[in-house]
Design a protein that fits this description.
Layout: E1 4-20, H1 23-26, E2 33-45, E3 50-58, H2 62-72, H3 84-94, H4 102-123, H5 127-131, E4 137-142, H6 152-164, E5 169-173, H7 179-193, E6 199-202, H8 209-219, E7 226-228, H9 236-245, E8 250-252, H10 259-267, E9 273-274, H11 278-281, H12 284-296, E10 300-301, H13 307-315, E11 322-325, E12 339-340, E13 343-345, H14 358-362, E14 364-371
Parallel strand pairs: 4-5, 4-11, 5-6, 6-7, 7-8, 8-9, 9-10
Antiparallel strand pairs: 1-2, 1-14, 2-3, 4-13, 12-13
This protein binds magnesium ion.
């Protein structure tokens, strides 16, 4: 039996080229986003095997995730890295008083993703293959180009460049104070791209129930792939009413921070497309439980953010999923993901297939370690 010998944690602050605004900024709930904070976990075993995993936070929470991870990391030393399910539970019990969702769970996610990467690397397989892949590429859509701070002419230019680069779908942010601005932007983009490009919109939770229903009806004519987060992330009943009333599929789930929270929404029929985020729900172990539950309900899957992880998980989902393309994380990793023909390819590199760049090391603001390198 191999055992975990050393754990290294890094807090990495990734600056964004432009401050990012979605509907939460336009309604005054949040400030524009200028950076994303990553929690990286790197594990080395006595036998010399290595893994890397990460979690992240936006706007606040980075130092909290790091501090929680630092406190619970020592319980991994000496453990068999293959016992990922048992280790998830052990990490959860180590911090049980702060609960099984939210920031505590997100800190555990960095370790969990790392252990899956380690196991897959040792097997010489991609994480997708280790889990049991259904495909070697996944439909992908672009989010980075359609934010609300971007003028519509630029959105169209971004969208065309994106499609030309092999990313099939285009997502636009909506939820502006004047709904006519949203419709004008969707109309302009649809006209510029034509009927064949898959188009989605994302309201980032900023509509009330009446507005969401009205907007959903107005948007039906655009043949959208989905309407994302039309309502507050925890308004399961409101989402369920929309999902039943509209032809356009409803997608939600990115804000939820545990499998239990997702199960509540799924049980109420709140979405046609579930959008879990592995770092937010506790890592790959928890994501897989949720994926099994969603598949049982014949729901579609479109994981949120972190394509470097979610590409593998989407490839292992039985129903044809989508993966969200964000170029923001590219400076962190030596490898880049390949897109063509509207699909993102799962690489044959073992594990997640990622290694940190020197730039990522340079953006590191805090590190902690426990155990001894072999
Ligand atoms: Mg979203």
């Amino acid at each position: 039996m191999d055992e975990i010998a050393h754990v290294r944690l890094s807090s990495v602050v990734l600056p964004l080229r432009t401050p990012i605004s979605d509907a939460k900024v336009l309604t005054g709930r949040q400030r524009p986003m200028t950076e994303v904070v990553f929690l990286f976990a790197e594990i080395t075993t006595a036998g010399g095997h290595e893994g890397i995993g990460f979690s992240y936070s936006k706007r606040a929470g980075g130092p909290g995730q790091f501090a929680h991870a630092q406190e619970i990391a020592p319980v991994l030393i000496g453990e068999d890295p293959s016992d990922i399910g048992r280790l998830w539970t052990k990490l959860s019990w180590a911090g049980a008083s702060v609960g099984r969702s939210g920031l505590a769970t997100q800190a555990i996610a960095a370790f969990d993703v790392c252990l899956w990467d380690l196991k897959a690397r040792r097997a010489g397989l991609s994480v997708a293959k280790l889990l049991g892949a259904h495909r070697d590429s996944v439909r992908t859509y672009n989010t980075s180009g359609g934010f609300l701070h971007t003028p519509v002419e630029q959105v169209i230019e971004n969208a065309k460049a994106s499609v030309a680069s092999g990313i099939g779908g285009i997502k636009l942010k909506v939820g502006q104070p004047d709904w006519r601005t949203d419709i004008a932007r969707v109309t302009a983009v649809r006209e510029a791209l034509g009927e064949d490009v898959p188009l989605m919109v994302d309201a980032n939770q900023q509509w009330d129930r009446a507005t969401a229903m009205r907007m959903g009806r107005v948007l039906e004519e655009f043949g959208l792939v989905w309407i994302e987060e039309p309502l507050d992330a925890y308004d399961a009943q409101g989402h369920a009413d929309l999902a039943r009333s509209l032809d356009t599929p409803i997608a939600t789930g990115e804000m939820l921070t545990s499998v239990a929270e997702h199960v509540r929404l799924i049980d109420l029929g709140a979405s046609d497309i579930v959008q879990p985020d592995a770092p937010r729900v506790g890592g790959i172990t928890q994501f897989q439980k949720l994926a099994a539950y969603a598949e049982h309900r014949q729901l579609d899957l479109a994981p949120h953010f972190a394509m470097e992880i979610h590409l593998h998980l989407a490839a292992a989902y039985p129903l044809e999923p989508w993966v969200e393309h964000f170029d923001w994380l590219e400076p962190l990793f030596e490898e880049s993901l390949v897109t063509n023909g509207g699909r993102m390819r799962v690489s044959e590199r073992p594990g997640l297939g990622i290694t940190l760049t020197g730039q990522a090391r340079a953006w590191t603001v805090a590190t902690a370690e426990c155990g001894k390198l072999p």
